[in-house]
Design the sequence.
């Protein structure tokens, strides 16, 4: 139950960000019936500006306001000089224009800030534990802001003069114009609202996961589009609901089960999670680590030091029903055992359990792990550099998470190996032949005559 609640909390926090971003996308579509695929790249400039201002010593709240204002102004400019001229053109023309504008803004970001992933300040990082559920300050702030935005937009549209004008233009542009409503000004306000909301959502996203790069805008546009479609294109309340639903659906789980000792490499998982969340910006990946051992307390401290309380859960020793639930809902299994003489020749129980639950595995390239998992695992080649091994392991996790078809294929291969090639009836004769070569056959019976189906002599 705790695992399920933690997943829901993480999903709702992520979904709240998607909801704010999708609201900006949907408000434009609801008025103009035009998909603004430059949405994310437009406000990305504002978010990068926030980063530069905060690094220059400007208070983060002020940097946020300036970034939102810049995003609103850029959105106004895009509407005035690009989209307005194309309202009467074929519907494909504004989409082509949007893609071109997105590329322009993306290249502007690359020219000014470069192509590398940049770290973003995390103002709300302390976790709060309630009944075993870890909620970060960022998640609390995100949920609160999303609620305030939803209420504020509703009040603005229904109570404010310009809000009611937006609703009239949304109903029928020509009738609104005949009624004396300044349609162009109303549409400009819509774009400004969309840009500001996008920048706010982008700010919450990067402060949650501590990283931003030039692909950020495109990713956010896709999330906004999917959330809007889930909620029904054109409906603002639907965009909010679609964003929350997307956040819940986006959560994927990487699971570890086993001992947590010095030789087990669980610290590699925690450090890989740090790379995935804070450098790659992948807050949609949650880590659930089951088990205990000599390093347990140190691993929990490492997680907290790396500000991963909302992303990495340590369950400690867990009853069978919890193990079954986690393994049944996880997306991949983690076998981070580092290469050494012992691990290289050891069959890892965790790997067998992952395959039994039809989970694809991410493991280091160990001799015995290859024998056990075969094609049911992705293998990371050890480099001898701990830092590089962590980054390679993180990359392998993300690549497997992003390849749903391969995950499904590998999971089925693993399950088939457990049921067929590695099943006791298939393995018994080989094991017995080894024992008999070492100890000799039972008295009165030729070697190799044990019963393969039962393994009994």
Sequence:
């Amino acid at each position: 139950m705790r695992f399920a609640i933690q997943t829901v909390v993480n999903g709702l926090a992520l979904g709240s960000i998607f909801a704010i971003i999708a609201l900006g996308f949907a408000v434009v579509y609801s008025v103009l019936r035009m998909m603004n695929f430059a949405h994310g790249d437009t406000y990305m400039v504002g978010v990068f500006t926030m980063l530069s201002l905060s690094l220059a010593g400007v208070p983060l709240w002020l940097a946020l306001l300036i970034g939102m204002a810049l995003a609103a102004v850029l959105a106004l400019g895009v509407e005035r000089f690009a989209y307005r001229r194309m309202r009467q053109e074929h519907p494909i023309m504004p989409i082509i224009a949007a893609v071109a504008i997105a590329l322009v803004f993306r290249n502007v970001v690359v020219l000014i800030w470069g192509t590398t992933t940049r770290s973003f300040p995390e103002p709300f990082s302390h976790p709060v534990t309630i009944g075993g559920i870890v909620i970060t300050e960022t998640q609390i702030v995100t949920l609160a802001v999303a609620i305030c935005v939803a209420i504020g937009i509703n009040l603005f549209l229904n109570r404010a003069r310009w809000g009611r004008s937006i609703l009239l233009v949304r109903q029928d542009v020509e009738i609104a114009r005949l009624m004396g409503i300044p349609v162009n000004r109303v549409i400009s306000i819509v774009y400004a609202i969309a840009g500001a909301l996008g920048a706010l959502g982008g700010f919450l996203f990067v402060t949650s996961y501590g990283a931003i790069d030039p692909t950020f805008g495109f990713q956010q546009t896709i999330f906004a589009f999917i959330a809007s479609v889930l909620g029904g294109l054109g409906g603002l309340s639907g965009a909010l609901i679609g964003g929350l639903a997307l956040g819940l659906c986006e959560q994927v789980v990487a699971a570890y089960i086993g001992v947590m000792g010095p030789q087990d490499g669980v610290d590699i998982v925690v450090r890989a999670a740090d790379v995935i969340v804070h450098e790659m910006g992948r807050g949609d990946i949650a880590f659930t680590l089951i088990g205990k051992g000599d390093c347990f307390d140190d691993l929990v401290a490492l997680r907290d030091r790396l500000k991963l309380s909302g992303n990495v859960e340590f369950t400690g020793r867990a009853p069978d029903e919890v193990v079954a639930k986690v393994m049944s809902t996880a997306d991949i299994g983690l076998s981070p055992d580092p290469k050494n003489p012992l691990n290289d020749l050891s069959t890892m129980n965790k790997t067998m359990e992952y395959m039994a639950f039809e989970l694809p595995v991410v493991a280091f390239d160990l001799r015995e792990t290859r024998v056990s998992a075969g094609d049911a695992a992705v293998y990371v080649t050890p480099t001898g550099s701990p830092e590089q091994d962590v980054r390679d392991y993180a990359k392998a996790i993300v690549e497997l998470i992003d390849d749903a078809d391969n995950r499904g294929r590998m999971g089925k291969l693993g399950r088939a190996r457990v049921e067929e090639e590695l099943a006791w009836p298939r393995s018994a004769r080989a094991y017995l032949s080894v024992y008999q070569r070492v100890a000799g056959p039972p008295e009165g019976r030729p070697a190799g005559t044990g019963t393969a189906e039962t393994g009994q002599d």
